[in-house]
Amino acid sequence: MSTPSNSLSQLALQKFKKNFWGVFSLCFIIAVGIIAVFAYAFAPDNSQNANQMHVSIASKAPGFSTTMLVLPSQIEHHQNFVDALFFGEKNTTTEIPITSYSMTGNTIHYMEYASDGLIGLEKEVQVDPTMDPHSLIREQRFLLGTDKYGRDLLSRVLVGARISFSIGFVAVFISLVIGVFMGSISGYFGGKIDAFIMWIINVTWSIPTLLLVIAITLALGKGFWQVFIAVGLTMWVEVARVVRGQIISVKENQYVTAAKALGFSNFRIITKHILPNILAPIIVISAANFAAAILVESGLSFLGIGAQPPMASWGAMIKDHYNYIILGKPYLAIIPGLCIMFLVMAFMLVGNALRDALDVKA
């Protein structure tokens, strides 16, 4: 008969499973991660950056639907399935919102959509005789409405999840690599090395995070990856301080002394004996940094130095529509704001659940 495992990892997993909000938040994060990776498969507008504009139907309420006339382009483009799935389809068609239409042979007579009770222009277009004119007409529904440029808001929100989610991973990875290395050296060796590294940490810590990120971003230039690197380079100090404090508290323990007596190298003692025993606070601070990275990126995009148009970003969406809060259409800014809030809250709840689960004393 098999006996249940009593390892610390198994006990921590069991404690984590009992935390409802921790498990729920983790499932939410996984769902957002899947949406971020396969955003264009879920988005109604699967064009690159979900940037299909229809000015005549700008700022429409959620649930708005209209008839679209889709005119094919003569421009040929070749795109494989994988590229279209992960980076969006290179859409060369022309979409025209219309209110009515009629067909005579291969000629389509239509009236363009006009808002505010206006009457649109009546036009006609000749289609290829080999094509079925009815295939160019489709009904389109905008579940979350349209933004001020007439783009599908739901598609922009789904594609924007990719930036917020990916910047968390990149920033946390950079902060862990630098922070764990600097904190380990500082805490383990002490002395002048510790004093020098702590001086660097204190200088970096004294500069406001957003100001430092802006300075690094301006130095590296505006762009997608520049923001990722800038955010990661400003978050390592928190990891370094935590790692340094934990190593100072455990480096005099008996298992570290025994490892030194056996002649193990400092590198092996740090990586094989000390770091595995201080993973709990590192995991918690990583979850907090993930949430902080999302907020910083949103702030940078709001200021216009984050992800650049036409790239979809939750922070940029708030920037484009925050004035609509007092113009009777607050959902244009509230929806991406809620997305940021829910994702940040999920990471904080997961971090709290992991802290409780990995607490050996409890």
UniProtKB/TrEMBL annotation:
A single cellular component GO annotation: plasma membrane
Any one of the GO BP annotations: transmembrane transport
Locations listed in the record: Cell membrane
Major place of residence: membrane
Membrane topology category: Multi-pass membrane protein
Pfam families: BPD_transp_1, OppC_N
Key words, A-Z: Cell membrane, Membrane, Transmembrane, Transmembrane helix, Transport
CDD domains: TM_PBP2
Domain ABC transmembrane type-1: 161-351
Transmembrane residue ranges: 20-43, 163-189, 196-218, 224-243, 274-296, 331-354
Family to which this protein belongs: Belongs to the binding-protein-dependent transport system permease family.
Protein name: Peptide/nickel transport system permease protein
